[in-house]
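WARN retry 2 of 3 for item q-0093 after timeout on previous attempt; input resubmitted unchanged.
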Amino acid sequence: MSETKAALLGKTLAELQKIAEDFGMPRFTAGQIASWLYERNVGTIDEMTNLSLKNRNLLKEKYVVGASSPVHAMHSADGTIKYLYSAGEGKYVEAVYIPENDRATLCVSSQVGCKMNCKFCMTGKQGFSGNLTATQILNQIYSLPEREKLTNVVFMGMGEPFDNLDEVLNALTVLTADYGYKWSPKRITVSTVGLRKGLERFLTSCDCHLAVSLHSPSHLQRKELMPAEKAFPIAEIVEILHRYDFSKQRRLSFEYIMFKGVNDDISHAKELIKLLAGLECRINLIRFHAIPGVDLTGTGEKEMVVFRDYLTQHGLFTTIRASRGEDIFAACGMLSTAKQQQKDIKEL
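OK item q-0093 returned
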């Protein structure tokens, strides 16, 4: 049985330098490889034509580029495209391309399934199947047909990024480094339910924006919606966030899915104002996309506007996120679940 070759995609410059050193190649070869990967988007090592034939053949003994095209795509009437990528035999992850005026955002996944088991999340219903590598995270961008149109990336797809922080940070390094994609950290947002073990490391390791999934200001209610609240209470997360400066370029936001009759009363708005007092932040109100087997329904448009206006009038900058892709397995995790269950999903 032949040995599986490792991927070059997702490697940092330091990792590529180690590979070059191991093969006895000049140190500058690492920079050449990085350029072929992250500037020229090559599909094979043979395309790296400023490497000698000998060095290309050496690399091919143990490595491949490691890019793989999406296996399925669903197109929404509003221009949103949900892509499905293979993450190993019988495993799939989603990336969602969202064009809007002069912006184009890609929502990427960091894990296959998720351990957090939030009540309202289809991905959590899958359970946890494994962490994505930096290769698999970046491949969602690398192999995206609309890659050249991208202006922003959000880590808000399947999985909890801080539960796979090593690989996520490697991917962020490549995205922002001079040898990589050269993206400003202002173009990238990473979302978390609030894993304390990763929060401080993330905030000290990079300058990307942070989004915290909040969904209720009440400890007891949030615990019912999000089991992670038991170990990582939102009050403690907010206390940590007060130690960092969000008044300059880095942005802090809180995601708040609104559930009818659950977390959408003005009393909840008052508790939010109290909880987040003194933090430089914004609130993103999100419409709920129903998922099978969950007894939650979304708050109506009129009620969301009232809730938004109350928060804004009391000093919390609040927006209502536009719903996108409602006609194509809108909720995160639904397409990959359908594929795993082979429900009317054929590969491209």
